[in-house]
């Protein structure tokens, strides 16, 4: 149990376009979802925390207008990278937990974004 | 500032040798510490957490508040232990807002 999926697993887009990444909890209700970013050979950096039905809380330095997060249901959160640029190319990973985050975080497989 | 430091990028050992992956943290409050593991081509998964005081796959980790450390240990490494290991700190209690270290790649050779 406790499986988290992400779609797509990889995406290539042109500079200036927007890309949406989905994160789904397949067999549990995720009250809280987290979005991380991982550069090559570096650690995961938390971008934002989203609770179902409320606005996401962004970490310092993360542009909320660039990285739009929606958590409309207990099983789905989306991250939209708006007007993507090459420097946005990265590995984006989501995690999900129940009980308002006070529970184990289960991680998705990640989405590799390449912006040309 | 909250920070997790894993000083070794790579730890290479032979099968059967003891393993210790180092983790030091900086946090002014009461920390919650975790070890996550990522096997090749797999997603990140929780290995163990300090509040459980459990042993998973032969690994243990003890929180040492005096030394602000949470080193991961295993007495006899196995080849299947080869993976990327991340130490993480929960900044606000529970499992919220994990702050990850840079990770240590463990390579266990036959």
Task: List the keywords.
heterodimer; A: 116 residues; mainly beta; seven-stranded mixed β-sheet; B: mainly beta; six-stranded mixed β-sheet; three-stranded antiparallel β-sheet; globular
Detailed description of the structure:
The complex is a heterodimer of chains A (116) and B (110). Chain A is mostly beta strands and 116 residues long. In chain A, strands 2, 4, 5, 6, 9, 10 and 11 form a seven-stranded mixed sheet that branches. Chain A has a four-stranded antiparallel sheet with strand order 1-3-8-7, with no helix packed on it. In chain A, a hairpin with a 5-residue loop joins β5 and β6. The mean pLDDT of chain B is 90. The radius of gyration of chain B is 13 Å and the shape is globular. Chain B contains no helices and eleven strands. In chain B, strands 2, 5, 6, 9, 10 and 11 form a six-stranded mixed sheet that branches. A three-stranded antiparallel sheet of chain B has the order 3-8-7, with no helix packed on it. Chain B has a two-stranded antiparallel ribbon with strand order 1-4. Chain B is 0% helix and 44% strand. Chain B is an all-beta fold and 110 residues long. The relative contact order of chain B is 0.34. At the A-B interface, β5 and β9 of A face β10 of B.
Short recap of the structure:
The complex is a heterodimer of chains A (116) and B (110). In chain A, 0% of the residues lie in helices and 52% in strands.
* Total strands of chain A: 11
Briefly note the structural class of the backbone of chain A. mainly beta
Major sheet attributes of chain B: 6 strands, mixed
Biggest sheet of chain A, in brief? Answer: 7 strands, mixed
Report the uncertain regions of chain B.
none
Measured distance between first and last alpha carbons of chain A: 37 Å
Class per helix and strand makeup of chain B: mainly beta
How many H/I helices of chain A?
0
Q: What's the overall geometry of chain B?
A: globular
Helix content of chain B: under 10%
For the secondary structure, the number of strands of chain B is: 11
Q: Give Rg of chain A in angstroms.
A: 13 Å
In helices, the fraction of residues of chain A equals: under 10%
Largest protein interface, residues of each chain: A-B, 21 and 17 residues
In what range is the share of β-strand residues of chain B? 35-45%
Mean pLDDT of chain A, as a whole number? Answer: 90
Quaternary structure of the protein: heterodimer
Count of runs of 4 or more consecutive helical residues of chain B = 0
Q: From the alpha-carbon coordinates, what is the Rg of chain B to the nearest angstrom? A: 13 Å
């Amino acid at each position: 149990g406790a499986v988290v999926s992400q779609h797509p697993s990889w995406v290539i887009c042109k500079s200036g376009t927007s890309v949406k990444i989905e994160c789904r909890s397949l067999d549990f209700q995720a009250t809280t979802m987290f979005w991380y970013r991982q550069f090559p050979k570096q650690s995961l950096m938390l971008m934002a925390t989203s609770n179902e039905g409320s606005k996401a809380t962004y970490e310092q330095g993360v542009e909320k207008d660039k990285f739009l997060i929606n958590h409309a249901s207990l099983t789905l959160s989306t991250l939209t990278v708006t007007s993507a640029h090459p420097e946005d190319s990265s590995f984006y990973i989501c995690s999900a937990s129940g009980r308002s985050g006070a529970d184990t975080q289960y991680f998705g497989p990640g989405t590799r974004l390449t912006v040309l | 500032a909250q920070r997790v430091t894993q000083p070794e990028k790579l730890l290479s050992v032979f099968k059967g040798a003891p393993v210790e992956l180092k983790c030091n943290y900086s946090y002014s409050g009461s920390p919650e510490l975790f070890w996550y593991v990522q096997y090749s081509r797999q997603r990140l998964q929780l290995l163990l957490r300090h509040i459980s005081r459990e042993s998973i796959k032969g690994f243990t980790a003890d929180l040492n508040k005096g030394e602000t450390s949470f080193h991961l240990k295993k007495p006899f490494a196995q080849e299947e232990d080869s993976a990327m290991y991340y130490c993480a700190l929960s900044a606000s209690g529970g499992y919220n807002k994990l702050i990850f270290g840079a990770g240590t790649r463990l390579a266990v050779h036959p």
